[in-house]
Amino acid sequence: MAISQCDSKSxxxxxxxxxxxxxxxxxxxxxxxxKMLRLQLTIHYxxxxxxxx
Length: 53
Known about the structure:
Elements: E1 3-6, E2 9-12
Antiparallel strand pairs: 1-2
């Protein structure tokens, strides 16, 4: 999976990069003990990339 740029944001996937049934995984190494972790992300699902090249 590739990282694309859209304006000033990094995007996983992009034109002709992501396909159906993809699996994404990110492993984090956290050195300090913790009781809670907040994960925040934005998911954009696009049906088509019409007129983009």
